[in-house]
Design brief:
Blueprint: H1 8-27, H2 30-44, H3 56-85, H4 100-110, H5 113-125, H6 129-136, H7 140-161
Helix pairs in contact: 1-2, 1-3, 2-3, 3-4, 4-5, 5-7, 6-7
């Protein structure tokens, strides 16, 4: 077994700030971003040997995005369970004067996972469709289709929330 070219310490020193900023954009909370950063590097430990072959930045970026989107979905599920127990409306997107990022986070938590991942790259990171296709390992046309479906679905969700 060959020794990994990256030590966890080196990987953390070089990339922790990037992972944190990515998580902060997606999660919207410094505490959640710190937790996500720690979790991403914990997940990196068993993957150090594999990171020799694959660019570590791309891998960390993908793991961070997936972790954060999963956390947003889990958070939504917990709110729904609590709301059901207390007889409240569950899963509302928006609310009074919710800002665009809060609305987008709520939409991402409810969206199809592949569409949500794609939309997060486009809206939070300002990546082009070509860049998203490269990160996700699919064609640009697939990204275009995913974004079209996400936008149509989001429009339906938001129109359903209007009084």
């Amino acid at each position: 077994m060959s020794r990994p070219a990256h030590s966890l310490s080196d990987l953390f020193d070089q990339h922790a700030q990037h992972v944190y900023r990515r998580a902060l954009r997606l999660m919207g909370s410094a505490a959640d971003a710190e937790e996500a950063t720690q979790e991403v590097f914990i997940r990196a430990m068993p993957e150090l040997a594999r990171l020799d072959e694959e660019e570590p930045v791309r891998w960390l970026y993908r793991v961070t995005t997936n972790y954060c989107l999963n956390q947003l979905r889990d958070r939504k599920r917990r709110r729904e369970i609590l709301a059901e127990r207390h007889g409240e409306l569950a899963g509302r997107v928006g609310g009074e004067r919710a800002d665009a990022q809060m609305t987008l986070r709520a939409l991402l938590a409810n969206a199809d996972p592949q569409q949500a991942t794609c939309a997060a790259y486009v809206y939070f990171d300002d990546l082009t469709y070509t860049e998203v296709a490269e990160v996700m390992g699919v064609s640009r046309r697939t990204i275009s289709n995913l974004m079209d479906r996400f936008r149509a679905w989001a429009r339906e969700q938001l129109e359903g929330e209007s009084p």
